[in-house]
Amino acid sequence: MTQDKTQSPAPGGSADSRLLRTLRNPLVDKVIAIVACLPFLLLMAACIRNNQLGLVRIAMLIQVLAQVVTMFARREPVRITFNPLYWVLAFVATYWPFLSIGLNTPGRAIVPIWLADATSLVSLAILLYARFSLGRNIGFVPAQRRLVTDGAYAYVRHPIYTGIFVAYLGVVMSLFSPVNLLLSLIGVVLFMVKSLVEERFLAQDPQYQQYMRQTRRRWIPGVA
Length: 224
Hints:
The chain is mainly α. It has a single domain (6-214), classed as Four Helix Bundle (Hemerythrin (Met), subunit A), CATH 1.20.120. Helices cover 62% and strands 3% of the residues. It has nine helices and three strands, in the order βαααβαααβααα. It has helices at 15-23, 26-49, 55-72, 84-94, 96-99, 113-134, 159-174, 178-202, 206-214; strands at residues 6-7, 79-81, 143-144. A three-stranded antiparallel β-sheet has the order 1-2-3, with helices on both faces. α2 runs antiparallel to α3. 27% of the residues are buried. Mean pLDDT is 85; it is low at 1-12.
C-alpha cells in the first residue's frame, strides 16, 4: 500500500493544504454529503414509490434516513486522506450494493422468514446505535473529525461496519444463492479492508492510538 498523504491546515501554498481548506469549507462539505447520499435517497424513493415496504426494507429505509441526517449535519474534517486508493476503496465499499445490483440472482430463503426479519432488526438496532454514537463525525472517506470513544464505540472500533455485516447476513438468509453469497462476502471483505485503511490513517493521532489500545476489537466484542 502506498504511503498515505495527509495534511493539517497549515500556512503555505501546497496543493494538499489548499485542497484541505476547500474540503473543510462548510458549503463544500455539505455538497459532498448530499452527493454521497443521493444514491441512498433515490433507493428510498424507489422503494416507497413501488410500495416495496416489507420489514427488511423498512429497516433499511430507517437506517438510510439516519445515515442521511447525520451526514448532512456532520462536522468538517480536521484531516483527510488524499491517497486516491483510499478514496476508491471508500467508494467501492460504500456503493457495493449499487455496483453489484445487476449481478444479484433471485435466491431463496434458507431460514424461516421470522429469523431473517429478526436479523434485519438486529442490524438496524446496531446501525442506529452506532450512527447516533458517532453523531456528527461521520464520513465515507478516511478523515479525522472528533474522536468518539463512548456509546457503541466503547465496545468495538467499527460498530457501523458490524451492523452492515449483520445486514449482509440477513440478505444471504432471505435471498440465498451462490452468487448472492459471493457478492455479500465481497461487501464484507471491502469493509474489513476499509477498517484497516481508516485505522492506518487515524492512528497518526496519538489519541486514536490510545483508543485502539483501550478498545481492542474492531467488529465483534471479545472476538474480532
